[in-house]
Write a structure and sequence with these properties.
The chain is of the alpha/beta class. The chain binds NADPH dihydro-nicotinamide-adenine-dinucleotide phosphate and oxalic acid.
Amino acid sequence: MRAAFLSTTLPFADWDAALKEHMPELELRPWPGIGDADAIDAALAWQPPAGSLARLPKLRLVHALGAGVEELLADPGLAPGVPVVRLVDPSMTRAMGEYVQLQVLRLHRQDFDYRAQQEAGLWRELPQPAPGERRVGILGLGVLGSEAALRLKVLGFDVAGWSRLERKQKGIPSFFGKDGLAALVRRSDILVCLLPLTRETENILDVGLFAALPRGAAIVNCGRGAHLVEDDLLAALESGQLSAAVLDVARAEPLPPEHGFWSHPRIVLTPHAAAATNPRTAAPIVAAALRRFAAGNRLANLVDRARGY
Ligand code: NDP
Ligand code: OXD
């Protein structure tokens, strides 16, 4: 089988080596040296070179080498009927679960306040609520959001979630739709965003949502930078409506050196590192999907292109 490797950011050699272990018969060709474009019927893509997708006339499958596919779906070269599979890797799911646990615990245990006290040379114990007294809301109860919710539940937090359609998740109260969002936000001392970026979810973390959170709430954004209206966040932190924000994603990545988030005392940043794609763990998953595709079998984790995720 012949596939094109289309990425401006991922290391071809690592992916090629990892995939060869699971699919020795795969001929993976990196852009632009793909040879005869007519012979390529699948592409493994993540931030593909501009115009590359458009130059594969026989493409019948795109396997994303990441979980969020909004950039791929927006690529003008992606032909309308081509199926897109996104990466669902249990190792990434675990990593995201860990990250959300870490950041929610940081907020729950007042790490921002203790860091500020240390800076000021202040030895002062703060009130210490139990996790059950802390309401955590998860926007997006998909693969990653569900894992995060379950892990927080195990830690004893009062967790609830929000999705587009009604979801029944054992032990996790869940809300859906527009009314559901208002109800979830009202009861979230810590709000975690694990939504895909779509027309409906862009700019969801804005002044209106912040105003509806309990005063002094905090947010964790691991979805996409464009979920957040940055000026609204700064204003909410300034007014005290929000007490802190943990951001793993930004509108411009890498975050420009002059950006105000870098030095904000109530913002913790990580460089889109919550759940990194790992060729070693992803390769068997991608190889299995390519085999199913070659055999004409139904594919898992197909993106609904109209829905946008
Ligand atoms: P899934 O597709 O499994 O889950 C998406 C969830 O969001 C679903 O519960 C879905 O609802 C919900 N949702 C989508 N649109 C809406 C809407 N309009 N209103 C309410 N709920 C909505 O995605 P994953 O959990 O795998 O990934 C989520 C996102 O996490 C990715 O798209 C990506 O942006 C981000 N990500 C970030 C990483 C990082 O390192 N920071 C790494 C990997 C992913 P429903 O269940 O009803 O369909
Ligand atoms: C993502 C990913 O979607 O890294 O952010 O997979």
